[in-house]
Design brief:
Elements: H1 14-40, H2 47-90, H3 96-101
Helix pairs in contact: 1-2
Length: about 100
């Protein structure tokens, strides 16, 4: 439901927009970050410190994953979709089923 809301592009909302951009990579990377932290940070240091380390590592890895994998893959997918649609238009085909099939 909230996916259709437009967030103003002001500096106040920039961190929230960044977290939104990183959300999928964060979701994918958090188990690996926790595994690394649980194996390398001693439990004796306490839960809050371990959780902070896991959060920091998750966000760092998510930023890398977003920049090096997710954004390039999205651009590649958009280029592929545009070229497919353009080829279809040049062939004189109907656009509706191309978009539905993508």
């Amino acid at each position: 439901m909230f996916a259709f809301l437009q967030v103003p592009k002001t500096r106040i909302y920039a961190p929230l927009r960044t977290l939104g951009d990183l959300s999928y990579s964060t979701y994918l990377m958090h188990p690996f970050a926790w595994l690394i932290v649980s194996k390398s940070v001693p439990a004796a240091l306490g839960g809050p410190l371990r959780m902070s380390c896991a959060l920091l590592l998750t966000l760092l890895v998510a930023m890398l994953t977003y920049a090096l994998v997710e954004k390039p893959a999205n651009r590649l997918g958009q280029r592929w979709a545009r070229s497919t649609l353009e080829r279809h238009r040049q062939a004189g085909g109907d656009h509706a089923h191309v978009v539905a099939d993508a």
